[in-house]
TrEMBL record:
It is found in: Cell membrane. It is a multi-pass membrane protein. Keywords: Acyltransferase, Cell membrane, Membrane, Transferase, Transmembrane, Transmembrane helix. The chain crosses the membrane at residues 12-31, 37-54, 61-81, 87-109, 121-139, 164-191, 198-215, 489-506. Signal peptide: none annotated. Residues 232-475 form the CN hydrolase domain. It is an enzyme of class 2 (transferase). Its main location: membrane. PANTHER family: APOLIPOPROTEIN N-ACYLTRANSFERASE (PTHR38686). Catalyzes the phospholipid dependent N-acylation of the N-terminal cysteine of apolipoprotein, the last step in lipoprotein maturation. Pathway: Protein modification; lipoprotein biosynthesis (N-acyl transfer). InterPro entries: Apolipo_AcylTrfase (IPR004563), C-N_Hydrolase (IPR003010), C-N_Hydrolase_sf (IPR036526), LNT_N (IPR045378). The lineage of its organism: Bacteria, Pseudomonadati, Pseudomonadota, Betaproteobacteria, Neisseriales. This is Apolipoprotein N-acyltransferase.
């Protein structure tokens, strides 16, 4: 028997609304840069207790909780729209709120599904809720181009024992474990008998203990190769980045950094050179390539380039290791971004009017294509991803299987001093865990960093400064269980079947009564 008396026993819903608002506003502290991972299960447990206590208002309350939580977690969007792109606040703030208003539908759907499966409250909490929450987050990571930021699993990366579920079936399994611990804490608050409390404590302890055990496993292993990698952070302000008058300054900054750098591999950030590769002055790429070659360095450069037809353009990283000036017009080995950002990299339908108000060049890229091969730089096969792509683990699996090293190149200057770059680094940590390889990150303004295969940050450059982060990394080989599965789809299918079985069980119990 579950009791809803005690801490939340108020007849007026005002107390419930208060708890929902406060806990939602606290959710950013569970993620980077604060990383209070233990806070997320507590906040979600409080949300669940209120939803159980105030059932007539539960869907409205959960929607508002999620709306506020996603709004404060995604406020960096307003930084990009207002501070950088130049939209007035009366347009940028409503546009910022649109995404949280959409994302909040998924937690609300989760609670609705829990109500439709009419099992006793504790069973709904422990069995139905974690499955439903994980599945709805799985869907939102794919629907309408997908958006995985704010998934509760990321709050556990990488200090929490629950992070070790990532190599098994991706961030979705970490989300499930986090939701289950949250549900166990909620059930502990709601129930009265001591033996039930003991069961709920045991469930939470078991999930955490299994995570700790998984964390002792090594799913991949070093292949014996090492490379000194230089990650360049030019710190070019976004207001200058696409200004033609600042082009010479940008080129000189990165050329000087390349010339002074002694490393096996040198990596420049996303669109480090803010001009189409085919439109560069004659001899410029040759200067970069020959300078790197004199230093015995393989050079990878972030730069936009036209497609072979010349009608569209790509957000690319090019490999200048074997650049031949006599064949400068031929395509270079490259990786081109495939998972594009709405508004930032392609124009959704009926949004042309917005671009008349925004200072946003190159807002209509083309997709690079799935499963692009790693680039060979020195003795490493590097699977690149660009900016937002490290939010999508499934997209990186195919290329990572053939790689020894992962690399993300980004330009986070769009988001100023917000926490966007901290959150993205946390997602890179998740990808390193899932794929069992070092992740090296070269960014324009931050956070340039190195993450080891266990998801720990081993080197970090100060943000908003010009830096060359020099590190020695090991190449890795082998596959994690997640890579063997190939994606999160097998887990989603299993969870869907389990949810259907629970629904059938609930229906059968209803007929018996």
């Amino acid at each position: 028997m579950v009791s809803t008396q005690g801490l939340f026993a108020r007849t007026s819903p005002v107390w419930g609304w208060f708890v929902m608002v406060v806990t939602a506003l606290l959710t950013p502290f569970a993620y980077a840069p604060y990383r209070l991972y233990w806070l997320m299960p507590i906040l979600m447990a409080a949300m669940l207790v209120v939803a159980v206590k105030y059932q007539p208002y539960r869907l409205r309350m959960v929607y508002v909780w999620a709306l506020l939580a996603y709004f404060v977690q995604c406020y960096w969007i307003n930084t990009a729209l207002h501070d950088i792109a130049g939209l007035p606040l009366y347009i940028s703030i409503p546009l910022t709120a649109l995404l949280p208003a959409y994302l909040a539908l998924y937690p609300t759907l989760t609670i609705w599904l829990c109500e439709k499966i009419r099992l006793p409250v504790v069973w709904r909490l422990l069995l139905v809720f974690p499955l439903a929450w994980t599945l709805t987050e799985f869907i939102r990571e794919r629907a309408l181009t997908g958006f995985g930021w704010g998934a509760i699993g990321y709050s556990q990366i990488a200090a929490s024992p629950l992070a070790a579920y990532a190599p098994i079936s991706g961030i979705a399994l970490v989300t499930w474990a986090t939701a289950l611990v949250s549900a166990a804490v909620a059930a502990l608050i709601l129930c009265k008998p001591w033996w039930q409390k003991a069961v709920h404590i045991a469930v939470a302890v078991l999930v955490i203990a299994v995570g700790w055990g998984l964390g002792q496993q090594q799913w991949t292993h070093a292949d014996g190769s090492t490379a000194k990698v230089a990650l360049l952070q030019g710190n070019i302000e976004q207001s200058m980045k696409w200004d033609p008058e600042a082009f010479q300054h940008t080129i000189q900054t990165y050329y000087d950094m390349v010339a002074k750098t002694q490393a096996d591999i040198v990596i420049l950030p996303e669109t480090a050179i803010p001009v189409m590769r085919q439109d560069l002055p004659d001899g410029l790429l040759e200067q970069f390539a020959s300078t790197a070659k004199r230093n015995n360095a393989a050079l990878a450069m972030g730069i936009p380039q036209y497609t072979p037809t010349g009608r569209q353009y790509l957000n690319s990283v090019i490999n200048l290791s074997d650049f031949d000036p006599e064949q400068a017009d031929k395509p270079l080995p490259s990786y081109s971004k495939d998972h594009l950002v709405p508004f930032g990299e392609f124009k959704p339908v009926f949004t042309d009017w917005l671009y008349g108000l925004m200072h946003m060049p190159l807002a209509d890229f083309s997709e690079g294509g799935n499963g692009q091969a790693p680039l060979q730089l020195a003795n490493q096969r590097i699977a690149f991803n660009i900016c937002y792509e490290d939010s999508f683990g499934d997209d990186l699996v195919a290329s990572a299987k053939d790689s020894t090293l992962l690399s993300n190149i980004s330009n986070m200057a769009w988001y100023g001093s917000s926490h966007a770059m901290d959150l993205q680094l946390q997602q890179s940590q998740a990808r390193a865990l899932e794929l069992g390889r070092y992740m090296v990150r070269s960014t324009n303004t931050g956070l340039t960093a190195v993450v080891d295969p266990q998801g720990h940050i081993t080197a970090l450059a100060p943000r908003d400064t010009e830096q060359v982060l020099m590190v020695e990394v090991q190449g890795y080989q082998g596959l994690t269980p997640y890579m063997h599965l190939g994606s999160t789809w097998p887990l989603a299918i299993v969870f869907s079947v389990l949810l259907l079985l629970l629904y059938a069980w609930a229906r059968r119990l209803q007929y018996r009564h």
